[in-house]
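Supplementary Text 2. Reproducibility record for the structural model of the 357-residue chain.

All settings were left at their defaults, and a single model was retained for analysis rather than an ensemble. We include the record here because the model underlies the residue-level annotations in Supplementary Table 4.
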Amino acid sequence: MGDLRARRTSRDDNGGVGLDVRFFHSRRGARIAYSLAGRGAPLVAVPPWATHLTGEAKLSGFEAFHGVLAAHHTVVRYDRWGTGLSDRARTDFSREADVEVLADLVDHLRLRRFALLGPSHAGPLAAVYAHQQHRRVSHLVLYGTRASALSRGETWTAMRSLILADWPVAARSIAAVVTRGSDPEDVDRFAELFMMAASPEMIVALQDSAVDHDATDLLGEIRVPTLVLHRRNDPLVECDEAIALAARIPGARLELLEGEAHVHSVGDSRALAERVCAFTAGTGRVPAANLSGRETEVLELVARGHTNAEVAARLVVSVRTVERHLLNAYTKLGVRGRTEAVSLWLGGMRRDSSASA
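Retained model, structure tokens:
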């Protein structure tokens, strides 16, 4: 597989995951920076809003997250066009342009089949590529994401003005939200990373375009094994959004972990990476693997204390439909009723979280 053949994990002098930064030119001539680490089946991490390959390494959970991934995969990371070490000159902010860069990178590396990780803003883009190239994508992992832009409406209007008026203050405000619950120093680290990653004008242009990038309509047509991974108290994307996302993708698995940081490279990042690798290796938690997206959604709401009628109202379906999904779940889980199912469901999640701590 070209550059990936027989690769070993790159490590720095301190024993951490090293940075092997390289460059290629997309079909439009844009210089794109990418890095490789680890060995094994390739996993491509799609960049979210704005990235910086070397700047991200300063976040508290970077080593843990990418160290776990690199122990199982050849991890491919790249800076989004317009940000980081990639070409900063960009005028086409369409979703198609970002898909094109991803396609060009995997072709450059001659990847025939690979796992795809889409964190945060990168989720819809990863979903679009997986839909278009389902024969090349072995697994799709969506973390902390939903089918459309994470910020819009009045919230984005206010933040947009602040970014253009005072970028350092805006960057720190964003950092305080997305790193909530992690190492306190991550606020300053992420703010620095964000300002390193792109100009305020580029940050605004990328988010303005993201408002129109909605992948909802194609989710039901994705035919790639999919994991929707989410921290329960994510301040940007509520649990209900993650549940709804998993329910729309045929056969998707939903896993909710404890924590609140939105950024995957802070907080208990090792637990996230271990869930990703368990999924790509086919050794994930059995109950979740057997349940359909809708059965997962119904059982999660029941486990959170909702009655069948409340679940029906929330999902806009009949109570009988909810009962049917529950009966299917009971059969797959091998339990005799609601109490056993909820106990197994919650117990399995807690074991996953404690084992990964």
